[in-house]
């Protein structure tokens, strides 16, 4: 995750804002295709988090939700505004996830073999031209999407357990049933063989043991000293960007 430049946060906006700003500016500077996945609720739905969400709804005069938590719009609006300023945002995809049978809540459920039998996704694309510009309107826009999520999930769980009005799942036009099945089989084969292969390498070859030990030491040390590989990458980018500006100023002065 550090290698992929994930944005790690402290869940305190006073501490996270500066880091968000630097990372988003970095993404805009390098001009690489960006997919930024965020969860405005900030956590998963449990009895405790629902109680806090209901308390917030009472204080703010908002509707209490049963199937979602009220979103935290501060981070969402900041991300949208920053990426929009950097001309690195073409659309927002609103994704709603539903589990028609069992809903694993923790890693313990997965270790016990309680995997979801089915996962349903509802995806709505909003081109950035259709998204409000002002911060206040953007907050209302986000809250409106969550009202729609609540109603969508209510119909899902109280109805036919399907997002489609036809009662059947929809395969995107770019895919097919055969392709989906092939991806499932390949993924299952890969994630079954890969851990076994790594264990075999560690057991049979000393160079693999030394490599794994060196990587563990490297990641632990750099995490303690620098805070993560993504921060090293960010610092290098800012340094070279500063040097480029100095060079450009010298060229202009000459």
Structure description:
The chain has 254 residues and is mainly alpha-helical. It is 58% helix and 6% strand. The chain has a two-stranded antiparallel sheet. Helix 1 runs parallel beside helix 3, helix 3 packs across helix 5 and helix 6 crosses helix 7. The mean pLDDT is 88.
Structural class: mainly alpha
Q: Mean of the pLDDT scores?
A: 88
Distance between the termini: 44 Å
Portion of residues in beta strands equals: 5-15%
Identify the strand order in the major beta sheet: 1-2
Note the total helix count. 8
Question: How would you spell out the order of helices and strands?
Answer: HHHEHEHHHH
Oligomer: single chain
**Basic shape:** globular
Helix content: 55-70%
Give the low-confidence spans: none
Cα Rg:
23 Å
| Major sheet details | 2 strands, antiparallel
Number of strands: 2
List the SSEs and their pairings:
Blueprint: H1 13-30, H2 47-60, H3 73-85, E1 91-98, H4 107-111, E2 120-127, H5 135-158, H6 177-204, H7 206-226, H8 229-253
Antiparallel strand pairs: 1-2
Helix pairs in contact: 1-3, 3-5, 6-7
In short:
With 254 residues, this protein is mainly alpha-helical. 58% of the residues lie in helices and 6% in strands. It has eight helices and two strands.
Keyphrases for this structure?
single chain, mainly alpha, two-stranded antiparallel ribbon
């Amino acid at each position: 995750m550090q290698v992929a430049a994930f944005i790690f946060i402290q869940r305190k906006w006073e501490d996270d804002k500066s880091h968000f700003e630097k990372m988003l500016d970095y993404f805009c500077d390098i001009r690489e295709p960006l997919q930024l996945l965020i969860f405005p609720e900030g956590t998963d739905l449990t009895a405790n988090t629902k109680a806090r969400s209901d308390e917030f709804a009472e204080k703010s005069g908002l509707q209490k939700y049963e199937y979602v938590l009220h979103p935290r719009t501060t981070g969402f609006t900041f991300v949208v505004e920053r990426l929009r300023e950097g001309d690195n945002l073409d659309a927002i995809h609103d994704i709603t996830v539903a589990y028609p049978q069992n809903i694993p809540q923790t890693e313990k459920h997965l270790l016990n073999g309680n995997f979801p039998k089915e996962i349903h996704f509802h995806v709505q694309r909003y081109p950035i031209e259709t998204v409000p510009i002002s911060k206040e309107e953007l907050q209302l826009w986000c809250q409106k999407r969550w009202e729609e999520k609540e109603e969508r999930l209510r119909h899902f769980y109280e109805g036919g357990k399907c997002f489609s009005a036809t009662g059947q799942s929809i395969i995107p036009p770019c895919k097919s049933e055969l392709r989906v099945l092939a991806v499932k089989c390949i993924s299952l084969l890969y994630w079954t063989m890969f851990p076994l292969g790594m264990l075999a390498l560690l057991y049979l070859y000393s160079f693999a043991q030394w490599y794994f030990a060196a990587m563990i030491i490297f990641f632990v040390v750099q995490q303690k000293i620098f805070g993560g590989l993504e921060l090293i990458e960010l610092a290098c980018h800012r340094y070279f960007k500063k040097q480029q500006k100095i060079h450009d100023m010298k060229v202009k002065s000459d």
